[in-house]
Design brief:
- The protein is an alpha+beta fold.
- The protein is 36% helix and 20% strand.
- The chain has helices spanning 3-34, 73-76, 99-104, 113-120, 149-162, 198-208, 220-226, and strands spanning 37-38, 49-55, 60-65, 91-98, 126-133, 142-147, 183-188, 213-214.
- The strands form two sheets. Strands 6-2-3-4-5-7 form a six-stranded antiparallel β-sheet. A two-stranded antiparallel sheet has the order 1-8.
- A hairpin with a 4-residue loop joins strand 2 and strand 3.
Length: 229
């Protein structure tokens, strides 16, 4: 076998082996760390506000009442920003993710290698996705959580800090983009990667508000597993 070919095969083998090893380490870390629970900070905290964890099977959202005594989300995120302009909505779901993935992949059939690669390796920007509901019921994909006012205040602060504001201090609506009549996108802080995913953001929101969470997770399975789903 020629020396050049032998070197090429050797380098290829090392490269493939390294990729497989990194992938195995990532999957193993995700399985182990997702299974390590972070307990609720104050188990006896009063149940003042009900919020929800929701998943579509891959991506998690945190769903909050639009109006409470602590905040009216419609003041910062007006109903006029969703195509339906339906002001009778009662709940708003917050999801964070890669902006390119969000806007260019309305369905899994639209996913391209380029979009996935940019999202996985810190090459994109982030967006907040808000979806509005008239009502929400507990089920296999929707878990109710009961927060105290103090816990809810921390959750509000965490979500608000995720929005990228303009010079005037207002959220930046990504106009002309939505999946349907009742959702909207906004510019957001941070950068998505395979180490910090949409579900990592949700998991950190749970930690910020003192709720049960995973030590770390990139997937919805980790979060819902902590809650026995």
């Amino acid at each position: 076998m020629p020396i050049t070919l032998r070197k090429t095969l050797k380098i290829t083998g090392y490269t493939v082996g390294s990729i497989v090893g990194i992938a195995a380490l990532y999957v193993g870390s995700a399985v182990v760390l997702s299974a390590i629970p972070v307990p609720k900070t104050q188990p006896n905290a009063p149940a003042d506000v009900t919020v929800f964890l929701h998943t579509n099977g891959v991506h998690t959202d945190i769903v909050l009442p639009i109006k409470t005594s602590q905040i009216d989300w419609s003041q910062q995120l007006p109903f006029a920003n969703i195509p339906s302009r339906d002001s009778t909505m009662r709940y708003i779901a917050f999801g964070w993710g890669d902006k390119g993935f969000y806007l260019d992949t309305p369905t899994w059939a639209d996913l391209t290698f380029s979009t996935a690669f940019k999202a996985a390796f810190w090459l994109g920007t982030a967006a907040m996705h808000t979806t509005y509901f008239h009502g929400l019921e507990a089920g296999p994909k929707t878990i109710p959580l009961h927060l105290s006012q103090a816990e809810y205040a921390r959750l509000i602060a965490y979500i608000q800090a995720s929005f990228k504001l303009d010079a005037a201090g207002n959220v930046q609506h990504v106009a002309g983009h939505s999946y349907g009549p009742d959702d909207a996108f906004y510019e957001a802080h941070r950068v998505y990667s395979f180490l910090y995913t949409c579900n990592t953001w949700t998991n950190d929101a749970l930690k910020a508000s003192g709720q049960r969470a995973c030590l770390w997770t990139p997937s919805d399975k980790g979060i819902f597993g902590i809650y026995g789903r």
